[in-house]
Design goal:
21% strand; 39% helix; elongated; five-stranded mixed beta sheet
Amino acid sequence: SCYQAILSRFAYKEIRFPILEETQLFKRSVGEVTDIVEKEMYTFVDRNDESVTLRPEGTAGCVRAAEQHGLLYNQTQRFFYSGPMFRHERPQKGRARQFHQLGVEAFGFSGTDIELELILLSAELFNQLGVMDAVTLEINSIGSSEARADFGKALTSYLSQHKSELDVDSQKRLETNPLRILDSKDAKTQVILKNAPALKDFLSEESKVRFEALKSALNELSISYKETPSLVRGLDYYNDLVFEWTTTHLGAQATVCAGGRYDRLVETLGGKSTPAVGFALGLERLILLKETLGLFKEQKSDCDVFIAYVGDEAEVAALRLSMEMRKAFPDRIVLLNCGGSGLKSQLKKADKSGAQFALILGEQELEAKQVQLKYLREQKDAVQLSEEKLIIRLTDEFSKSQVGGLV
């Protein structure tokens, strides 16, 4: 896929880990009082009476696997992964109970340089996929866990004075996870929040300097961004930088990609203190965005070359020819007729498939050690060619109608 090629060029390596993990992994990493753990995880007891969970996100599993196999201590690592995640949410456009994410994680880097690299990497993915003009980078600094704890107390004190005016979800979060109220979509709650204490006033000088340096570098790199003070992310493990790529083209499901720094997670899960940063990109939302923008090319054909054969003796020769064609033209789709039927019927299938060319093997062709090349989209006479000359002819024909661009 195109994203694997881009990630490889940035020196990120693929890592794979299980879909099923111990429930405690997510409670310790994501947070006991987050929506994911409280309401959305698919959790059940297995035959050994142990609680297991289908992974709701990838970072915790990636950290657990990398730590367990000795990949993090005194090392720097750049990983990526992709695959299904599971959350028990109300299915709607852009949100499914089984969905797929591309995740990117970097370990052992404490500076803003790796954060900038990840933002550049995500921007490159959007550029290559043709959606960069439809997404906006939003950034914020949430500081240290100590700063957030102090801010949380001040926020709780302020919002408690307006508790009856808050929406139901925010009233619940006031007791468990007050920072998540900043994310509320309720209009009345947002009005109340306008006069609430600001997280930026609780940041340490180090966090402030770090965030200013990051913004300055983004300006120098010509990466447009929007500073969003209400951006806190829904997972407990983040610190300092958090960011999202959002769009206005998908209604309520505006976030296409999200991430940030999480320096304490490795230690929380039993490893040595290891700085880390990463992001996850929702593949279904990306597909929806491309569809909304009309960026998918219409599939005009099922194949480029259709191979027809007549008679039992031609069967093996046709199979061998199909493999030689795929070897000679790795970017082209070669469809071999299977299931019998006469030549006339096979040529109808070839025409319907949208193929440019039909290659025909029959008794005469076998005797002459040649292949008949039939043009399906041009008014040209069929020709019989040796396999070597056939490859030369098709190479020339394909170069005239080269199809480019990322799929």
